[in-house]
Each structure stands twice: as structure tokens, then as C-alpha cells.
Amino acid sequence: MKSRFPTPGALLLATLLGLGLATGGPALADKAEPVTSEPVPLEGLRIFAEIFGRIKESYVEPVEDRVLLEHAVRGMVSGLDPHSAFLDEKEYEELQVGTSGEFGGLGIEVGMEDGFVQVIAPIDDTPAQRAGLRTGDLIIRLDAKPVKGMTLNEAVSAMRGKPGSKITLTVVREGEDAPFKVTVERAIIKVASVKSRMLDDGFGYVRISNFQARTAPDMRTAIQELRGQAGGRLKGLVIDLRSNPGGVLNSAVSVSDAFLKEGVIVYTEGRVEDSQLRFTAAPDDVLDGAPMVVLVNGGSASASEIVAGALQDHKRAVIMGQQTFGKGSVQTIVPVDDTMALKLTTALYFTPSGRSIQAEGIVPDISLEPVKVKPKEKAAKDQIKEADLARHLSNGGGAGHPKDAAAEDGQEKKPLVESDYELSAALNLLKGLSILRPGT
Questions:
Q1: Which of 81, 250, 292, 376 has its CA 20 to 30 A from that of 87?
Q2: What domains sit in the chain, N to C, each tagged with a CATH number?
């Protein structure tokens, strides 16, 4: 790794002159308030120089200047919030790989909580999901190495690796008496962000696992296909954002815009002008006003919360599930030079009504606990019905109800309420809303 850090003397001199730490140019200075707005903290700089000298002179092993300065910068940035970070050359490259949609790893979105890696959400159809990792899990060891003391980028780097290789995670989970180990085999993570299917006659389902550059057009295509299957018009749609950790801001805006005809979708506020953005909807609705239910949970974060908040504030959809994660901050990647960058929190998201998402999340209109439903033991096969009575009247209404295809095949179809209670509740709500909607 090439180092571009200045020497200690140059660092202190540059700071005293108000030139900042960005030796690659004015990128950081342009993003911050003028350094002349407050007095230079000379006493703090003196203490820094004193500690720097003590380490150089007395530490048990010699330490290069560039290493000490990098540690100082990392500490300064990591002390701000869980999402800001200094990125060296390797970490900068990994960030770009991680946003490309394909990489070798476990398939989880993570953050830091009390010095440990917290699972925000496992990504659909990845090793992490198949291994049973859940939103809220705390990872305290990576193989035999404690996570405490690692930066988030170091932990992410350790979890990535050659496809087919394995890593053992030590996990602390709420409700479990003791930490337990989970062995996960790394794989190439290819994230298909949109999946869809018909739930029932005229009622569609779209699952968005994360927000990528093509998520909005892919979602529109999926809805168009569902409309075709429904004869040209959907009676209702479920958008599933459960355990969706977020992604590209513009993608979330475009997904929201697909269902809104006017008004603000989301806006951001920060200290500098570039961080103050406002996004508004264009006059179209791909569902022609058909009712919607959006499913969320504690793993729905960032871009997912933008979509849920916009549709909730405009009363375009019923939000159902559990309170979302509450990641309402905007991170900007600021290159320091051609090898290093700063990931810095620069703004906060606000819903159309002015609610801040940060540390609050989106409270659903209808709360649902993630429960498992087991089928009731079936009544005896010889339970008497009207058709079993002697001299019962025949049905004069025609052919009656069509037989279920699965029943004709001798296969018993698993009820949706058993396989996914929350989705079943969303479908039932959609059916009720559709009945009350004129013209459906």
C-alpha cells in the first residue's frame, strides 16, 4: 500500500495554517465549514505532538510515522459515528467491489454495535441466510480472532475471501443463553434485487432484497409481467422490504416514484449545500391506484426506510410488520487522493412529512410479530357435513367451486399462513381493501 501521509512536522504545520489533512488536494476542505470559523486548538495539537513523540521514543517496538498517522486518522473518523470510516487503498478497492453486485463473501449487511459486528440483514439466497444468521445478531469472533478492537472495514475484509473457503462466526443472539458458533462457506455473492410472483387471483408480490442501480426498472418490468398474468390490471400488490439493508439512494427514490403521482419523496439536510437535496415524484402510478401493502421489519434499513416512509406519508400504502432499523444518515465517499478515501456522514434523511429516520426508523401502521403458525390437527375424516346427510338437497347453482389442482394431484399445498404469516396477513388486508375499492 502506498502511503500519502505527511510527516509529523508537515502535519502539524498544515493544521496550524488551516490547510487540513487532505494532502491530495482541497476535497475535504471544500466539504466542510471554513477552518477559520473556530480558533485552531493549539493545546490539543500540543498534546497530540507530545503523545506522538512519546510513542516514537518509548513504545516497545519501533513504529513508522505513516502507521501512527493512519491510526490517528482512523481513530478520529471512527469516533464520529458507526458509518464514517477512513479507507486505505485496499479498503477503497473493496468498497468499489462491494457495490458492483458480485463479490466473494457471506452475504450480510453489517454495522458496528459496542465494538462488535452487528448483522443488519442477511441478503436473500446467500450463505449467511442459509446458515441461519438473523437481524440483530452480534458477531464477537471471526474464527479464533476477537472482533473487539477491529474496525468495521477490517471485519468485513476478514469475512470476505475465496469462494468455497469457510469461516466460523461466534454469535451472540438475544434470547440465547450463551454464544454459539456458525460455520459459513463463502460464495460468490450475486444479488438479484427483485423477485416476483402471483399470490392469488389478481394479487401480486414483489420482493426487493436490496437497492441496486437496476432495481427500479427491474421492478417495473416485474409488475408489468404480473399485470399481464392478472389480465391487465392488479387488484393489489405486496412490496416485501423485510431484511432489506438498503443500497443506492436514487434507486429508492425511483421505486417510490413508481407509485406516487406528486409530492416530495425524501429530502436530506446537512451542513453544506451539496448535502441538501430534495426528490419529488413524477405524475404516474404503475398500479393505477391499486392498494398496496409494504412489509418491513427490524432489518429494513436506509433505502428501504425511504420507500416505506414516502409511501406511508402519502397514504399510498399500508406499512405492516415491525419497526425498521433506523439508519437515516447519508454517507459521501470523498477521495483524498487516487488511493485513499473518506466515507463521511454528511446528511440525514427526512420523510415527506419531515420525520427523521435516524435512530427512529419507520413505525408500521399495523404491527405484526414474526410468529410461526402451526396447522391445527385435522378433524376426523368422518366429520359429518350437509352433503353426507340422507336425502340432502343437491346444489342447483351449477358446477360449483373448481377443484384445487394440488388436491387432484394428491398433494396437499402448504397454506401461506403457515409458511409466511406476515405475508398471509398482508394478502388478507389487500383483499379487504380491494373489496372496498370501486370498480374492482
A1: 250
A2: 8-79 (no CATH), 102-190 (2.30.42.10), 194-367 (3.90.226.10)
> Could you give the residue numbers annotated as active site?
302, 313, 327
pLDDT digits (tens, 9 = 90+) for 234-290: 999 999 999 999 988 999 999 999 999 999 999 999 999 989 999 999 999 999 999
Report H helices in 298-382.
303-313
Helix (H, G, I), strand (E, B) or coil at 113: strand
Q: What are phi and psi of 84, to 5 degrees?
A: -80, 145
Neighbour-count burial for 274-301, b at 16+ CB within 10 Å, e otherwise: ebeeebebeeeeebeebbbbbbbbbbbb
Rounded Cα gap, residues 86 and 109, in angstroms: 19
392-437 tens-digit pLDDT: 788 776 555 555 444 444 455 678 998 899 999 999 999 999 998 8
